[in-house]
Amino acid sequence: MAFITLNTDKLKHNFDYLNTFFKEHDIDWSVVTKILCGNENYLAELLKMGISQYSDSRISNLKVIKNIDKDAQTIYIKPPAKGVIRDVIKYADISMNTDFRTIEMLSKEAQKQGVTHKIIIMIDLGELREGVMREDFIDFYARVFEMKNIEIIGLGTNLSCLYGILPNNDKLIQLSLYKQLVEAKFNIKIPFISGGSSVTIPLVMQGLIPPGINHFRVGETLFMGTDVYNSAKFENMENDIFKLYAEIIELYEKPVVPTGELGTNLEGETYSFEEEDYGRTTIRAIVDIGLLDIDMKHLDPTDGDIKYAGATSDMVVLDLEENPKKYKVGDLLEFTMDYMGIVRIMNSKYIEKRIINSNTPSIIKTGA
């Protein structure tokens, strides 16, 4: 059976590194937990590490966090849909908002539940995903400022997720200027400017973050040790906290080129083959994962001799060529994944989720 592992020792290493880093720069940060897809065991391990604020775009995931620790502070990080307003007030201490009518509904529901709901107003700085347009922001803020049971605790922005618009000093200065503007106009103090995410961390290292930016939302760098801005990896962070293991369920020497009239496969693709491949054979292995679990472009075998040959809904076919490692049926093959690969595997109910650390007996046996 295929399974994914989370190494808690490596996760703790990354967590401690980032926690120290942000403290040194007087920045508060929230862990974006959506990569864990609400897995209770994985979330419980994360909550042991000592941060008090968690962000997610799924209410069901925030509910799991609150069930583990009712005092954990939670942030709902996308504009709420009408159908989840009640649960946003119930399970999210803070939500990020961009629509006046939505905030009106949050206000009414907060009054019903007898709570004050905190919000961060998101401003569009060019990424064209969520965010109030800059020219409308002051009027928008003035209207929200008067709402009952709503407390504006911050301003924020999102960059790089949709079109890859990178954060830079100019854009973040704009965000800081909006803070100064509303504080002066409304005679208030705004605690948080949430302008940072994994992609912004290298700018902090270079001293390019304006002083007003004091809140980060970080997921990918914590869980993968990635330098998102430069599409690289941080050398002093762990990059393989998650690994996927799939069992070989068939292994035979087979022709490289199929026989018969070629049509399209289940994804509508038509294959073509090189002339030199006709008549050649190779060792082929089938493993017990498929397209229902992951898109193969997000998955890499740790054994560099293994090549991807194709996949169907429940099986992946791999080319082992001469099979130098002498793999056999029943062996486990190890894979690493990018961010989207991990999310999709985590979201598959067919993949077992395991926790490992330095005290875990070896569960991996591959090759001869």
From TrEMBL:
Pfam families the UniProt entry points to: Ala_racemase_N
UniProt keyword Isomerase present: yes
Coiled-coil regions, chain positions: none
Required cofactor(s): pyridoxal 5'-phosphate
UniProt entry tagged with the keyword Protein transport: no
Span of domain Alanine racemase N-terminal: 7-225
Segments crossing the lipid bilayer: none
Keywords: Isomerase, Pyridoxal phosphate
This protein's name: Alanine racemase
Species name: Flavobacterium suaedae
Taxonomic classification: Bacteria, Pseudomonadati, Bacteroidota, Flavobacteriia, Flavobacteriales
